[in-house]
């Protein structure tokens, strides 16, 4: 009997997930314990194992698609088994109960009943062989997606595995593959348009099938709406063609102007290595460029073709270039990614709700520089100035617990543990991995853990628990030459420390002007929990530790 597998809840805060990669394909044999897919949240990508054995009969969420927890993910059963009822109706309520987690049994049962009711109350059934494809949910914060490019057009033949479109999520622009074969009967969301998750994206089925009565929610429309749809269909198709022709630079092109098919990982590797994808021969299906093609690529030396047209080039250089008036106004509109929207929302809430104020102190780094040099001369030891700041901050928090606090309407909670958040910039935005019990770590342990967490962050391999529970945050832009800056507090923390660059400049010591090295530290405080005197006392203790690193070893 077929087993229904739903989108799992991989953390206590997860509401939806993205299928980053299917490791099994429709029709593959599956053993208990096999990895079915890699599922991505906005925090990490995790492997999802099968607890059943049989044949993978149906994939409900395609690679790159986002779907809420408990959405139909896959169906495993006996080869050739009829699963049409499970696909169209989402399975019976009994099946839903078996596959959901214990604490969600009743909820899943109610959802299944709702789905059955909606099917019964519909005006009709979806034509046989027709597949409804909806806008996927590709991260737990994604509420809408944008169709960057349609690779297929209405009326095109579609094979299983063909790229249908490129969809922009809050993480990246991902290629969306078809797991069905047939004819692309309808496109529900045009290029450049943004739509809510689960909106009708496309319909695939037998050529000539009438799908004009299928509405955006996948149901049937009234007969009057059907006729209107038929009349507008030709005009809509013409608009799609025009939009595709006018859309510049949305896909990579090969030497002959055709589109380059490459996996997201291959694209990323090529970008990092500076490889032109148009010069790489793909070994994947239909010439698709995959990881091994990038790894084995060796650039060939090609003679420069500059001898031709030398006289013409000279004439072009001598010709007068068109005059562009100074002050010409122009804009380039860039759609906000979902990650940028989330960052804007959360930091906006912090800035507007928490009354920020800022305290800045200048630290003499002469002893810190000498101590770091001596420490790093030891074998297998590497300590950065940022590691020293984290250690000093953790020890200062131990002496000033009110800075290590959280505000709520009814009470102020002062944490007895010290979990240091370390802001890390990634291509898509900003993440804050957490060092648990940082005050108990040595500087070398802090350095190793920060390096490990930062690497995971850049590779999107951080686990949700590695970014939860911070009580204080450090943000360092000194490596970019920033001398001084202010940060927005990472809620629910009460403070965040901004670390600037070490600057060589004249300083006064013992009445003499000498060359010194200083660093500015700025503490942003939530005035609801941290008063000015409390913040100032914390900075004084922090300064003492930084100017006398030997005290941190006690």
TrEMBL record:
Q: Where is the Lipoyl-binding domain?
A: 2-77, 130-205
A single Gene Ontology molecular function, please? dihydrolipoyllysine-residue acetyltransferase activity
The record ties this protein, via NCBIfam families, to: PDHac_trf_mito
Q: What is its EC number?
A: 2.3.1.12
Give the Pfam families listed for this entry.
Answer: 2-oxoacid_dh, Biotin_lipoyl, E3_binding
**Tell me, how does this one assemble?**
Forms a 24-polypeptide structural core with octahedral symmetry.
Protein's name according to its UniProt entry: Acetyltransferase component of pyruvate dehydrogenase complex
Q: Which family does it belong to?
A: Belongs to the 2-oxoacid dehydrogenase family.
Q: Which cofactor does it need?
A: (R)-lipoate
Give the species: Autumnicola lenta
For this protein, the record's SUPFAM superfamilies field holds: CoA-dependent acyltransferases, Peripheral subunit-binding domain of 2-oxo acid dehydrogenase complex, Single hybrid motif
Functional summary from the UniProt entry: The pyruvate dehydrogenase complex catalyzes the overall conversion of pyruvate to acetyl-CoA and CO(2). It contains multiple copies of three enzymatic components: pyruvate dehydrogenase (E1), dihydrolipoamide acetyltransferase (E2) and lipoamide dehydrogenase (E3).
According to UniProt, the reaction catalysed is: N(6)-[(R)-dihydrolipoyl]-L-lysyl-[protein] + acetyl-CoA = N(6)-[(R)-S(8)-acetyldihydrolipoyl]-L-lysyl-[protein] + CoA
The UniProt regions of compositional bias labelled Basic and acidic residues, in chain numbering, are 93-112, 217-258, 288-305
